[in-house]
């Protein structure tokens, strides 16, 4: 039986542009440290084979020390390691795949065509290919069929299955079915996908190893699997990231906002980056997003609180008053009733809140 680890899309040296500069630099350092945690996992779980399906770097020209640390971490793994460069870290002149000295246990696929690497001690062959530029408009699996020689055959590629556009190795389902591979390890899709079986081939995307923004939510990690002597594949997802990005929507209608948020939060959020969206109806002062963020910030790695509440309908009833407040509300109410969509109404609600706060000499923050 072969034990393997399948990871992809580390995107080392990502900018983390949404974070403050100091925190972004810390996250980049943490990403490099994660590599050595991964090496410890490989060695502690008797992994035979490590399959890394591209975009390990965020660009084809990362910082030199990042390449050095990746090489050092992979060299610590007591396993054979295979890498298929992707569209971000494509193989070419000056790329770290060419300039870095990779350990003996590491094989980097460098051709824009499927090539074979034998692993005799496991009676196994790994077939892989590389992006050699930022685009790969033709499927790298097209026309490929593994030989029927009694060995276990695995594929390693960065690409999409039936992609919407032909830019990132658009693999077709029928190509996977005809490949003769026991397992096809894929990268490029940052959201973990449940394994697919096409023909006799199991294929999967593990998603990115760690989220980098609020478009990469939830648990991140890798697949750990086994391949039996008969070629049967079994997979389990292993959450591995120290930080998660999460978006939490909380309806605070008729509630104290802080109490409502605390009731909705899971118990342990210390390492996570949260965006909390406050919804529902509130009084003139809104939900107090700034104060809420200040009160809860130490429970998170990073916290955003956004007030998406609307003014309670009964507040607009004061538009009938014979006062400056009534005149102000009547003008906005007419615009609100004529608004074309919810976004326009939300802007008018916000204007009403700030206007009423000004009339009452209150500070909305």
Please, could you describe this protein's structure?
With 365 residues, this protein is an alpha/beta fold. The chain has 8 helices and 19 strands. The protein folds into 2 domains: 2-239, 4-Layer Sandwich (Purple Acid Phosphatase, chain A, domain 2), CATH 3.60.21.10; 245-359, no CATH class. It has helices at 21-44, 64-76, 96-99, 173-177, 257-264, 289-296, 324-338, 342-359, and strands at residues 2-7, 49-52, 80-83, 106-108, 115-119, 124-128, 152-158, 160-161, 170-171, 183-187, 196-198, 201-204, 221-227, 233-239, 245-251, 273-279, 281-282, 302-307, 310-311. It has a 6-stranded mixed sheet, with no helix packed on it. Strands 5-6-7-10-12-11 form a 6-stranded mixed sheet. A 3-stranded parallel sheet has the order 15-16-18, covered by helices on one side. Strand 1, helix 1 (21-44) and strand 2 form a beta-alpha-beta unit. The longest helix is centred in the N-terminal third of the chain and has 24 residues, at 21-44. The protein starts with a strand and ends in a 6-residue tail after the last helix.
Short account of what is shown:
Helix content is 26%, strand content 24%. It is of the alpha/beta class and 365 residues long.
What distance separates the N and C termini? 61 Å
**Element-by-element helix/strand order:** EHEHEHEEEEEEHEEEEEEHEEHEEHH
Percent of residues in helices comes to 25-40%
Q: Any idea what the CATH architecture of the largest domain is?
A: 4-Layer Sandwich
């Amino acid at each position: 039986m072969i034990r393997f680890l399948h990871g992809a899309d580390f995107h080392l040296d990502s900018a983390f542009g949404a974070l403050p500069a100091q925190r972004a630099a810390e996250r980049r350092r943490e990403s490099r440290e994660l590599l050595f945690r991964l090496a410890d996992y490989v060695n502690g779980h008797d992994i035979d084979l490590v399959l890394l399906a591209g975009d390990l770097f965020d660009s084809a020209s990362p910082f030199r020390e990042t390449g050095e640390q990746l090489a050092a971490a992979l060299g610590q793994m007591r396993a054979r390691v295979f890498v298929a460069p992707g569209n971000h870290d494509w193989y070419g002149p000056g790329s770290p795949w060419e300039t870095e000295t990779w350990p003996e246990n590491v094989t980097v696929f460098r051709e824009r065509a499927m090539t074979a690497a034998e692993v005799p001690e496991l009676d196994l062959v790994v077939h892989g290919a590389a992006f050699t530029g930022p685009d790969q408009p033709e499927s790298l699996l097209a026309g490929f069929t593994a030989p029927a020689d009694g060995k276990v055959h695995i594929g390693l590629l960065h690409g999409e299955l039936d992609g919407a556009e032909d830019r990132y190795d658009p693999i077709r389902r029928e190509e996977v079915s005809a490949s003769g591979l026991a397992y096809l390890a894929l990268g490029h899709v940052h959201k973990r996908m449940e394994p697919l079986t096409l023909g006799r081939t199991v294929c999967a995307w593990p998603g990115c190893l760690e989220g980098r923004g609020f478009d990469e939510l939830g648990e991140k990690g890798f697949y750990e699997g086994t391949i039996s002597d008969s070629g049967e594949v079994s997979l389990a997802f292993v959450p591995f990231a120290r930080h998660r990005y999460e978006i939490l929507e909380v309806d605070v209608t008729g509630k104290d906002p802080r109490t409502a948020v605390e009731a909705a939060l899971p118990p342990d959020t210390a390492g996570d980056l949260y965006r909390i969206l406050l919804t529902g109806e509130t009084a003139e002062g809104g939900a107090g997003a700034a104060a809420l963020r200040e009160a809860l910030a130490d429970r998170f790695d990073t916290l955003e609180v956004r007030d998406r509440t609307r003014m309670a309908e009964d507040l607009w009833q004061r538009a009938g008053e014979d006062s400056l407040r009534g005149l102000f509300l009547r003008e906005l109410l007419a615009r609100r009733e004529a608004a074309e969509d919810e976004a326009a109404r939300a802007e008018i609600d916000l204007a009403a809140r700030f206007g009423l706060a000004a009339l009452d000499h209150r500070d909305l923050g």
